[in-house]
Amino acid sequence: MAEACRIVAEVLEGIKQSVAPGITTKDLDNFAESFIVSKGARPAFKNYRGYPASVCTSRNEQVVHGIPSSTKLAEGDIISLDIGVYFKGFYGDAAITLPVGEVNNQAKNLISATEKALQTGIEKAVAGNRISDISSAIQTYVESQGLSVVRSFVGHGIGRELHEEPQIPNFGRPGEGPRLAEGMTLAIEPMVNAGGWEVVILDDGWTAVTKDGCLSAHFEHTIAITKDSNVVLTKL
Ligand code: MF3
Ligand code: CO
User: Fold this and answer.
1) Cα(213) to centroid(ligand 2), Å
2) What total of structural domains would you count in the chain?
3) What is the distance between the alpha carbons of residues 29 and 40, in angstroms, rounded to a whole number?
4) What is the dihedral of CA 112, 114, 119, 123, to 10 degrees?
5) What is the pTM (predicted TM-score) of this model?
6) Which of 27, 135, 168, 179 has the fewest beta carbons under 10 Å from its own?
7) Ligand 1 within 6 A of CB of 82
């Protein structure tokens, strides 16, 4: 599983270098798919419930599951990139949001707060805690920054399947849900909106956008819970 996650981290690192005004999300998807296949792995999202690409590319007010297209990224956009890899029987899953060129302060703050929210959740992912300790930490931090957490998509267990039990909401009261134990592998993924938390799905059946049109960011890591702490598997 660590190997699948390492490939995810490598793709994201490579893609980071390519994101710039003028590039299309289809270009990014092609890069990711070739890289994954060159490692002898398989893009986990492609054909998953009919999803048509290897990467989810969600731009500006798009929250998650944006479909790569031939539209060029423009200076000032933000772009969320979500990647899953299947390798030797196991899955890895991670996401980042990147600025395209120079972005405004609202976008910068949203990106850094969402990354920090993920970090805050990961810190609570230790044996003995409960699932909602992660959820609550994420929600508390995000709302302290004047931002909102998306309710209709959640993090998840991951391993031999892309989506396993338990679900990991990004909101809730602490002390609830399954207890965390050594050896569990989880994908924690806060989606954070600059305005309201509500989202709607576009007619393509996939793309989730903010209902009020505000910006949205998404960070995700696959982690493994160890005896005293955890390891982030989708980090180089
Ligand atoms: N990271 C997302 C998730 O864990 C991506 C799924 S996209 C899909 O649910 F295309 F595979 F559905
Ligand atoms: Co995920």
Assistant:
1) 23
2) 1
3) 17
4) 140
5) 0.98
6) 179
7) yes
Select from 133, 139, 164 the least CA-distant residue to 151.
139
> What mean pLDDT comes out for the span 217-227?
98
Which range of residues forms the domain containing residue 140? 2-232
The string of pLDDT tens digits covering residues 201-213 is 999 999 999 999 9
Q: Tell which atom from ligand 1 comes closest to the C-alpha of 53.
A: 10
Gap from CA of 162 to ligand 2 centroid (Å): 8
Contacting residues for 23 by C-beta, under 8 A, at least 6 apart = 72, 73
User: Whose atoms come closest to the Cα of 95: which ligand?
Assistant: 1
Distance CA 61, CA 91 (A): 28
Q: What is the CATH number of the domain that holds 222?
A: 3.90.230.10
Taking the CB of residue 214, how many other CB atoms lie within 10 A of it?
A: 18
Query: Which residue type sits at 65?
Result: H
